[in-house]
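STRUCTURE:
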């Protein structure tokens, strides 16, 4: 057994805890009869993939990678399963040609024309967007379509199994429904041969030997139809259980809001004679006000928006950290996530095997994170853009090269990407809120003293020496404490109420340039 695999047996990172639970408790250390361990993520293609889709796939992938290290001889697969046979209940708000789609309400998504005009159906369009979305992050997965599985007959055996246990399934589901819904509920939804719609109609009989159900059509007539061959679609919770049993799903995550569905589907899965998958329940995201994020409210943050202001590794880190804890997902969390990622990345080369497995970047980069010095933090870049008042990438790189002579856009691609995202974040979030104030008499005198001290330092003074000078200047009796001194520096020099470690920032920005700022502040000028 390799040293790394030995370390994985006791690694405390949550993906390893989940992988060990799967290996020991469900699999008992053995390969399943189907020949592989199956991980699954689900996707409802009535809308486009979103940040929750990314979170579920990236977290599941992290567990799968941890499992592969623990049990390298057991093959694994990841199915990204699209529920594209669901009947569309309402027209999404964000599509073209809504009237065209409205004419087909009730039909499976894969039977509705594509309002975008690029694919054979609305479902095919959104499935293509899902695959492109997952491919852009390099996920290793196998796309699966409910329409394909139902229509090809690959679900037929499992559907007939549900029919054989019809009464038991009904008796598990009915207590969870309201009185009115109980009167019409059936685990099977027939697909109307005349209209192509997925019908929510009363099922008045079922014939196990014939493999059929009989339902009362919307015109009052009785219709007998096979449950196989794509002529019926199962209700959601029974469908989930049927899929688990048919595919032999071993592991699937789901949000806290689906706990009742997981419990009910697990009961149905056992009725069908199968073992429901192991599940990790993750907490839901909150907005900046602590409210649950809702697509209909539009109070969330999209993947595209995050990637405008931070690299995808920072988003992966945000998903990695404490999946069972509710987290606020809004723009202000991005700088911290980026700097946390850089910190973990910088620590990785010096860590031993065990510590590396507990470092998030091992999970983000499949055990092989890039090697690049964390020359400058994201927060520092924001402050550099702020004091330069520039959205020009080349201007920022001019300062960076003086601070880290060996860094170039070519040799430091991570830093180069950070410069781009920091400029975007500065432009959209920092710049509009900047409010400079003039220095008080006491602050002006302190700024003059700091400028004189900086002039006396050697041109190549390091950040620590500069920081010491800043501290000593702030110990004047004019300030109640150092906190008030640093607050004055940030408000007068940067136009904000908090800021960077000044020694490092002055080293980056330049002593000469900083003296110019201090001289203006000491003269009572506003730097805004």
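SEQUENCE:
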């Amino acid at each position: 057994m390799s040293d790394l695999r030995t370390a994985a047996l006791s690694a405390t990172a949550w993906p390893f805890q989940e992988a060990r639970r799967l290996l020991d408790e469900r699999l008992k250390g053995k390969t399943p009869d189907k020949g592989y361990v199956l991980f699954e993520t689900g996707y409802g293609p009535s809308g486009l993939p979103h940040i929750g889709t990314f979170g579920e796939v990236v977290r599941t992938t992290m567990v799968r990678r941890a499992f592969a290290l623990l049990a390298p001889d057991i093959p694994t697969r990841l199915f990204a399963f699209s529920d594209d046979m669901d009947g569309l209940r309402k027209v999404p708000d964000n599509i073209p040609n809504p009237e065209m789609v409205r004419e087909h309400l009730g039909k499976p998504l894969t039977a509705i024309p594509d309002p975008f005009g690029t694919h054979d159906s609305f479902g095919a369009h959104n499935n293509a967007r899902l695959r492109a979305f997952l491919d852009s992050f390099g996920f290793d997965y196998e796309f699966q379509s409910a329409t394909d599985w139902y229509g090809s007959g690959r679900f037929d055996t499992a559907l007939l199994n549900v029919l054989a246990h019809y009464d038991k399934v009904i008796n598990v589901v009915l207590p969870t429904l309201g009185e009115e819904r109980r009167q019409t509920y059936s685990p099977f939804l027939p697909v109307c041969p005349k209209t192509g719609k997925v019908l929510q109609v009363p099922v008045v009989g079922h014939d196990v030997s014939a493999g059929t159900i009989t339902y009362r059509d919307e015109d009052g007539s009785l219709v007998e139809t096979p449950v196989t061959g794509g002529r019926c679609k199962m209700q959601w919770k029974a469908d989930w259980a049927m899929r688990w049993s048919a595919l032999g799903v071993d592991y699937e995550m789901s949000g806290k809001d689906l706990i009742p569905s997981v419990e009910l589907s697990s009961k149905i899965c056992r009725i069908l004679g199968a073992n429901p998958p192991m599940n990790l329940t993750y907490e839901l995201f909150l907005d900046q006000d602590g409210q649950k994020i809702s697509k209909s409210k539009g109070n969330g943050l999209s993947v595209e928006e995050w990637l405008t202001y931070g690299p995808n590794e920072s988003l992966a880190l945000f998903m990695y950290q404490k999946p069972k804890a509710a987290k606020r997902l809004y723009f202000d969390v991005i700088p911290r996530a980026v700097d946390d990622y850089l910190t973990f990345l910088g620590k990785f080369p010096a860590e031993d095997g065990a510590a590396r497995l507990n470092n998030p970047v091992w999970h983000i980069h499949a055990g092989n994170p890039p090697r690049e010095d964390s020359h400058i933090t994201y927060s520092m870049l924001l402050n550099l853009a702020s004091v330069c008042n520039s959205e020009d990438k080349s201007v920022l790189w001019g300062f960076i090269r003086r601070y880290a002579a060996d860094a170039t856009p070519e040799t430091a691609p991570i830093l180069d990407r950070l410069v781009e995202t920091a400029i975007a974040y500065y432009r959209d979030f920092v710049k509009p809120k900047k409010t400079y104030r003039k220095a008080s008499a006491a602050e002006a005198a302190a700024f003059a003293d700091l400028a004189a001290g900086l002039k006396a330092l050697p041109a190549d003074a390091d950040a620590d020496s500069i920081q010491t000078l800043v501290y000593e200047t702030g110990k004047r009796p004019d300030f109640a404490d150092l906190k008030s001194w640093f607050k004055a520096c940030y408000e007068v020099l940067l136009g904000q109420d908090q800021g960077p470690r000044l020694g490092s920032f002055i080293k980056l920005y330049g002593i000469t340039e900083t003296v110019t700022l201090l001289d203006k502040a000491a003269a009572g000028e506003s730097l805004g």
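REMARK: Residues 3-172+235-282 form a domain with the Rossmann fold fold (CATH 3.40.50.620).
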